[in-house]
Design a protein that fits this description.
Length: 186
């Protein structure tokens, strides 16, 4: 009767078989799988696009599915600073998140820079000698005396949108005048 109570393992050993290896614990197996996946997926994660940025157009009133400038900036700036990629890649992702007047403005500025024209600085420093007038405005309230980082005023989307459109108009006028001087008509 004692023989009937033998375990499966004891019977295998009694018949001359090799002992079966102990099954790994579920916890150990899960840790090993996690480490393997982490190592295997790391290159894929590093080359994959980062978290998609929210869109911003600068249009007032803010369209559905889009955020106002403050919310977009507060989300975008810290997120982009965390990314471990080149500044060019960061710029590309930020530009992909822009829509409407915001992307138009950046295109105009890029085109003017490519043509060698001076572009008003975003911090208000003069781009021409002897021009001490401060250029630029607050992207929060639309006023000329300060910038969004220092703004204590209530957000005014209509004024900001109007200022952006005025800036685009100025840039387009500068481009047209410069084009006329460099390419005179016969």
């Amino acid at each position: 009767m004692v023989d009937e109570k033998r375990t499966r393992e004891e019977l295998i050993l009694a018949l001359g078989g090799a002992p079966t290896p102990a099954a790994p614990s579920l916890v150990g197996w899960a840790k090993e799988l996690g480490n393997t996946l982490k190592d295997a997926l790391r290159p894929l994660y590093e080359s994959a696009p980062y978290k998609r940025l929210r869109s911003f157009s600068g249009v007032s009133p803010v369209p559905p599915g889009e955020e106002d400038y403050e919310a977009w900036r507060d989300f975008t700036v810290p997120l982009v600073q965390e990314w471990e990629c080149s500044d060019a890649e960061k710029r590309k992702c930020v530009l992909e998140s822009l829509r409407g007047p915001a992307i138009d403005l950046t295109r105009e500025v890029a085109m003017m820079k490519a043509q060698g024209h001076t572009v008003p600085s975003s911090r208000g420093e003069s781009s021409r000698r002897g021009d001490s007038q401060r250029e630029g405005f607050c992207y929060n309230c639309g006023r000329d005396s300060h910038y969004a980082l220092d703004c204590q005023n209530k957000t005014d989307h209509a004024r900001v949108s109007q200022k952006l459109q005025q800036t685009i108009g100025k840039l387009q006028g500068n481009t047209n005048r410069a084009w006329g001087r460099s390419n005179p008509r016969p």
